[in-house]
Design goal:
It contains two helices and ten strands. The chain is mainly beta.
Length: 139
């Protein structure tokens, strides 16, 4: 089953086990992103910003920044093992949960889900009802 690891049940489990604590001080997430939910859909944009150590994710609708911002909670290592079992620091895997989306950074070209999904850009999202999708960081 394609994207079997990224099922809604797993996504729910990941969301509930996210932790607000994040030890690393590297800001890999702040910036503008583009994501295409399906081949037929037009790309959607969102941005992530960090203020006072807290990340916020907000979708951009029709060239406006209206919409509800979601706090993004970083995931602890134990939860990251569900996304990439046996991950190491060399994988550079970091993920945060915001609303129905898990946004992740990993070493570019990392294979996940037994090779069924490759994070070519180093950024991907797991979106409830969609599964894993490639994300492009625009800045």
């Amino acid at each position: 089953m394609k994207n079997a690891i990224f099922t809604p049940l797993l996504l729910s489990s990941l969301i509930f086990s996210a932790s607000a604590a994040f030890a690393a001080d590297n800001d890999l997430f702040s910036g503008m992103y583009s994501v295409q939910m399906s081949r037929q859909a037009k790309p959607e944009k969102f941005f992530v910003k960090k203020v006072d150590g807290i990340y916020t994710l907000k979708m951009i609708n029709e060239n406006s920044q209206s919409g509800t911002p979601f706090d993004m909670e970083m995931m602890p290592d134990a939860t990251l093992n569900r996304i990439k079992p046996g991950f190491t620091s060399a994988d550079e895997l970091q993920c945060g949960v915001a609303g129905i989306m898990v946004l992740c950074h990993v070493k570019p070209q990392t294979a996940l889900n037994a090779g069924q999904f490759v994070a070519r850009t180093g950024y991907f999202a797991i979106i409830e009802g969609v599964g894993a999708v490639e994300v492009v960081k625009l800045n």
